[in-house]
Amino acid sequence: MAEVRAEMVANVWKVLVSEGEQVEDGDTLVILESMKMEIPVLAEDSGTVVSLKVAEGDVIQEGDLIAVIE
Amino acid sequence: MFESVLVANRGEIARRVIRTVRALGIKAIAVYSEADADLPYVDEADEAILIGSAQPTQSYLDIDAVMEAAKRTNAQAIHPGYGFLAENAGFAERVIAEGMVWIGPPPEAISAMGDKINARNLMEKAGVPVASGTREPVPDADAAVAAGIGYPVMVKAAGGGGGIGMSVARDEAELRKAYDTARTRAERFFGNPDILLERYIERARHVEVQILGLADGTVVALGERDCSVQRRHQKIVEETPSPGVGPELRARMLAAAVRAGEAVGYRGAGTVECLVDPVAQDFVFLEMNTRLQVEHPITELVTGLDLVEQQLLIAAGEPVSFTTVEPRGHAIEFRVYAEDPKRFLPSPGSITVWEEPVGDVIRVDSGYRAGNKVTPFYDPLLAKLCVYGPDRAQALAAARRAVEEFRIEGPKTNVPFFTELLEDPDFATGEYDTGLVDRMRAR
Fold first, then answer.
1. By the CB < 8 Å criterion, does B163 face chain A?
2. How far is CA B300 from CA B155, B316, B335, B340, in A?
3. Which CATH code for domain B205-442?
4. What pLDDT is recorded for position A37?
5. Does domain B132-199 have CATH number 3.30.1490.20?
6. Which of A12, A37, A58, A61 to mutate against chain B (most B CBs within 10 Å)?
7. Structure pTM?
8. Are B156 and B166 in contact (CB under 8 A)?
9. Model pLDDT, residue A1
10. Is-catalytic flag, B291?
């Protein structure tokens, strides 16, 4: 099981996957936006997205859980 | 001269403009969002008006809110700084229509230069060299390939700025991908989906010329700035004079920049950005920024001029404070960003320690102080560290000391990157191009 967490305070701009979806290592899960920059959050493992904790427009803090991949 | 000026901006540039406005005995009016109430510029203004919430669209980009603040405070003129509404011709027109003075170029000049396709065609007509490229918007990826510009090719948003949506493609597959990315970003960030292609010059330097369009209609060039130290097509360090521009090329670039300004009836401070091939000692026009530039302080350090003062004089219809300009010495600016020094990812947070270097040859234009919170709503610029020396070697020596003495704790900053840069052999000799930072990171 791999937890994907936010590296910084950011807005969630785009959510590109949904719960139950299969992802490959390196796939973009969500795109965050902070300080006028887009930051893609990538899967670091292949597997199923068992939990997705963010929605477009959310403001997330450093360390917040974005998704769980199993 | 005006009795009051409203500064429609935030952070370091609002503070810098307010400094000159007040030094001239003019009342300075600041506007701020809920996120910025504690920043130094709000305190330093004679009057400050809360114009909305943290989201830029609800405050600094909200034309009605800014105009309301200007009317409430009886502001005579509006200085837009850079970014936000600075290159919004509609805002400039509104300011003028409501009977206030716009401290910037005529709205027509902003429009003419705001669309990169139009600007490029206009400059070509004015006899300014341009890179080979498309003369009309490129409608789709197939058309981009069919345009036959050759590789490498730069894909750009016509309404863009700040490096957003720009990328280099080296073959057809990359071009298709770059086109799609640029198109999405152009729509999202600039509300203008038009895309242009330009032949990309390898190992180029990014060099720009500072111009001033005077109240009597003449345009003067105040020298160049080299902005080749970039990450993600955004500037991090600038210096003047450019180590890659010889006297003959400099003379040609300055003359072309004057022609560029004259072609659009320019007034006030503007910057003509070019790409320079240092080996061939040749250049092409890139774009024109119709506003005060972030890196204007290094031109001030070598010319002794206050560019904001010249902007105010020109807007008031008065003569500028100088007759001729003879730049002396060497100046370098380091943009201190709230971002990690390795991958350059944003790092907002609360500032616990803020200690600026001080000295005769050091100038720091900062937007923050200890206790301030750096929020994710705005760009990551915290401060501009500028150094001066009689020559480049002495400016570099001053830079090493100043970088070492700048202490910021809280958010991560790119200050450690400057230490790394100052030790880089290519930066030390001055023989670098826009690929420098990528090469440093690839080592």
1. no
2. 33, 21, 16, 29
3. 3.30.470.20
4. 85
5. yes
6. A37
7. 0.93
8. yes
9. 82
10. yes
In this complex, do A9 and B338 lie within 8 Å of one another by their Cβ atoms? no
* Gap from B379 CA to chain A (nearest CA, Å): 4
B430 in A contact zone (CB under 8 Å): no
Tokens 């405050």 belong to residue: B59
Distance from CA of B234 to the nearest CA of A (A): 11
Q: Which residues of A touch B379 (CB under 8 A)?
A: 35-36
In chain B, domain spans: 4-103, 132-199, 205-442
Which residue is catalytic, options B15, B291, B335, B363?
Answer: B291
Our CA dihedral for B34, B293, B237, B177, rounded to 10 degrees, sits at 80
Low-confidence residues of chain B: pLDDT under 70: 162
Predicted local distance difference test score (pLDDT) of residue B27? 98
Cβ-based contacts of A36 with chain B (< 8 Å): 162, 164, 378-380
Looking at residue B338, its pLDDT comes to 97
Spans of chain A, pLDDT less than 70: none
Pick the residue from chain A with its C-alpha nearest to B374.
A35
Please report the domains of chain A, with CATH numbers, ordered by start residue. Answer: 2-69 (2.40.50.100)
Q: In the block, which residue shows the tokens 């009057």?
A: B47
Q: Which helix (H) or strand (E) holds A24?
A: none
> How deeply is B398 buried, as exposed, middle or buried, from its count of CB atoms within 10 A (0-12, 13-18, 19+)?
buried
